[in-house]
Amino acid sequence: MGGVPSTPRWGGAAEMRPAETAEYLIGALVGEKSYPLASDYWQKLLESPLHLRWPAHRVLQASQLFAQNNCKTRHLAKILVHLAWCLQECVSASGVPSAALVRALNALYISSVFLKYFIENAKSDHFEELHLSLDENEAKPTSFSKGGGPGRFQVKIVYGILLAENYQTIEQLVMHSVLSFLGKVDVSTNTYLLHHELLNFMLIAMSTQLLSGPSPGPDDSHPLIDAMMVQESSFVSLVVSKLLLNYIRRPNFPIDSSSYSIFSEVNQTGVLQRVGSAAANFVLLPFNLFVGSTGEATRSPLAENSLNVLLILIHYRKCIETDYVKDRGDHSSEPLPKEDACFSENPYCKALENAQDIEFDRLDVEGNVQNGPLVRLPFASLFDTLGLYLADERSILLLYSMVQGNSAFLEYVLVRTDLDTLLMPMLETLYNASRRTSNQIYMVLIILLILSQDSSFNASIHKLMLPNVPWYQERLLHQTSLGSLMVIILIRTVKYNLSKLRDVYLHTNCLATLANMAPHVHRLSAYASQRYNKLAEMSNNKMHMPNGESKEEDNLPEDTTAELHIYTDFLRIVLEILNAILTYTLPRNPEVVYAIMHRQEVFQPFRNHPRFNELLENIFTVLDFFNSRMDAQKMDGEWSVEKVLQVIVINCRSWRGEGMKMFTQLRFTYEQESHPEEFFIPYVWQLVLSCSSFSFNPNSINLFPVDLPLEKQDSFVGEDGQKLQSGGLNGLEQQVDVLA
After folding, report:
1. Integer Cα distance of 40 and 517 in angstroms
2. H or E, element range at 244
3. 22 contact partners, CB below 8 Å, separation of at least 6
4. Residue among 509, 571, 515 at smallest CA distance from 539
5. Which pairing describes strands 342-343 and 356-357: parallel, antiparallel, or unpaired?
6. Which Pfam families match (predicted)?
7. Which portions of the chain are predicted below pLDDT 70?
């Protein structure tokens, strides 16, 4: 095979075998000679069979030679222009022709290979080495043949500037064509592969983010993703809708390859096979990636890639220049203060936030129909799909993005009667917290907190009964309400956090959700009621450690005073939760009364504590009331649990709350920090790299610490590890506000 030829011989190319033709054409592409945009070379390149099996070192050699000559040849820009033209032909044709698909796939694979190399090895801050413009000496194309030529699109080259409709740069033309195909052309047997590879191309195009730091600045350059951000709102809505529909419908790769023209033996044209793995080999498309050994589709790469692209798009933020930046001067080396950072609007995020249910033509408060293009989705199908795939961390992030940003979807979720569809997989994730990433746990807790802000949600979860909970191992849970299970899991998470992690943000979120639920608790199970006492007991034990010592002295932080302050605040919230249950829902929760009576000695040490005495007055008022009723009963023999509960149930009916002090009802809300991009952009890319086949040179990554493995982490391994992975939550900063 030898090295990559830089001076191929055109003579006799037609007689060469396909592999030799591919050698020749790729050699011409990476060589020194510049082929004009109108040259028939491009047609030969895109229509010839390009089945190559190059080892990694040859791909690297070709990429290096291409990078060396691209400043003169501008072949990257030209292959991207031809990609745009091929995609436009596919969109404009009534049915996507096979020949057009092959040309588009060839252009797509070739440009993906070299674009990825350029980005991974970029030396300039603004990716000048891409040379995404045409040389001023480029001849003006006047006419082209109909077979895929650009003449039909009325595109002309004038002084190195590409003009296509309203798109004045190559980046805008290419991304317009990519988005147009994704949004307008349906996924079918013939188009599946092109859809999938266009999503891969978008990941490569957006991977410039990996080279930037975690805080977007005005000097950051992302030419291709910025070109996506300036597209028409109609295209943006089409793309967001199609990506979500791909996620919902989860189309599978066509199992019968003979029906797929690209793989058909009678098809004489071929494709340059995609770059595979981190070694970037030209390899044949791995069929087993899409189809299992049994012939049945095992997964939907198109759905997964659609979700990857969507998450990156909606969380992208472009920092724009402000008067403050201009006053500093262009050469200031000081980072831009957060308070002075200004970001342009993200149309994809806006489209997702304004998405509406396809079954409900919503009007605004004035009764006017929403203006502008809207994303319309089957909320019912999205709800069900999320419920099926919440074990995937990316689906958790999508659900967070929907309930946090889209009020219409949040309202839809809250009126569903089968909330267990979403809650059960999330509660199972919390149950298995030790085997989940810390960020995944935070996302789940924030979603639960957002849902718990609605009183109807808090009421409905106690009415939905679960016949069993098969993944809960500590004890059998039969006919337990969803609300009781939620209390059990949240308190279990708090206990785990206090014993292992001591993460203030985590237990604050758990307690905030429990506090929101408290005034609406209804027939809490005995096991769930006992969990509240366990929290009080744990705080009691922690706050009474002499001189900060315990059986596990090494696990204690150095500043014992700070830790005791944390436990004091923690116990106060627990007592306020109990107060809310006893004040507003006591007659409906005899098991809670039984639980505090059974372990009433837990509260005695804090009765005179200045932080707790007011809250404990109500608890002891309840204890005095029911203890007196118990003492008035004449019993032969010992009290059994059933007999005690019977007395409590009877006297709950006569409870009037006399002597109870009314406190301001706790209500916690979640607010996203003013600069969430510092958390979400690195987090999304970590998910993409760890959950998909997309790879990137770790030595080039500046977006997050490169010493972190990109696979799933064993989360909660300690404070340092958790802070590295979650950004210490400084980027997300859950703001839990108590509203009077």
Report:
1. 70
2. helix 233-249
3. 48, 49, 50, 51, 52, 272
4. 571
5. unpaired
6. Dymeclin (PF09742)
7. 1-20, 50-52, 94, 136-167, 255-298, 321-341, 361-372, 501, 540, 542-560, 707-740
In Å, how far are 199, 311, 572, 633 from 243, measured between CA atoms? Answer: 10, 10, 46, 67
Nearest to 318 by CA among 337, 339, 338, 346: 346
Buried b (16+ CB within 10 A) or exposed e, 30-49: bbeebbbbbeebbbbbbbbb
CA dist., res. 7 & res. 285, Å (int): 29
495: tokens are 């206990």
Q: Which of 598, 472, 468 is nearest to 532 (CA)?
A: 598
Long-range contacts (CB closer than 8 Å, 24 or more residues apart) made by 639-647? 641/594, 644/594, 644/597, 645/590, 645/591, 645/594
Residue 123: the pLDDT is 87
Tell me the C-alpha distance between 675 and 341, whole Å: 9
pLDDT score recorded for residue 673: 83
Bridge partner residues of 156 (DSSP): 163
- 143, burial (CB in 10 Å: exposed 0-12, middle 13-18, buried 19+): exposed
For residues 495-522, one letter each, b for 16 or more C-beta atoms within 10 angstroms of the residue's C-beta and e for the rest, the string is bbbbeebbbebbbbbbbbbbbbbbbbbb
Show the CA angle centred on residue 499, arms to residues 498 and 504, nearest 5°: 25
Q: Which residue has the tokens 């859809």?
A: 195
State both tokens at 455. 């009183």
pLDDT of residue 535: 83
In this prediction, residue 639 carries a pLDDT of 85
Question: Can you count the helices (H) and strands (E) in the chain?
Answer: 27, 12
Q: Where are the beta strands (DSSP E) in 619-720?
A: 668-671
Instruction: With beta carbons less than 8 A apart as the criterion, state whether 589 and 532 touch.
Output: no
**Per-residue exposure over 184-194, b if at least 16 CB sit within 10 Å of its own CB, e if not:** ebebeebbbbb
d(CA 192, CA 202): 16
> Given this model, what pLDDT does residue 132 score?
87
- Calpha distance 6→24 (Å, rounded): 9
Q: CB under 8 Å, gap of 24 or more: what pairs does 352-359 form?
A: 352/240, 352/310, 352/314, 352/401, 352/402, 352/405, 352/406, 353/405, 353/406, 354/406, 355/240, 355/241, 355/244, 355/406, 355/408, 355/409, 356/408, 357/408, 357/409, 357/412
Q: How far apart are CA 427 and CA 363, in angstroms?
A: 35
Cβ count within 10 A of residue 732: 22
CA atoms within 13 A on the CB side of 126: 5
Q: 394 vs 246, 306, 310, 500, 701, CA distance in Å? A: 15, 11, 10, 26, 21
Tell me which residue has tokens 């830089």. Answer: 6
Contact 77, 170 (CB under 8 A): yes
DSSP line for 78-98: HHHHHHHHHHHHHHHSSS--H
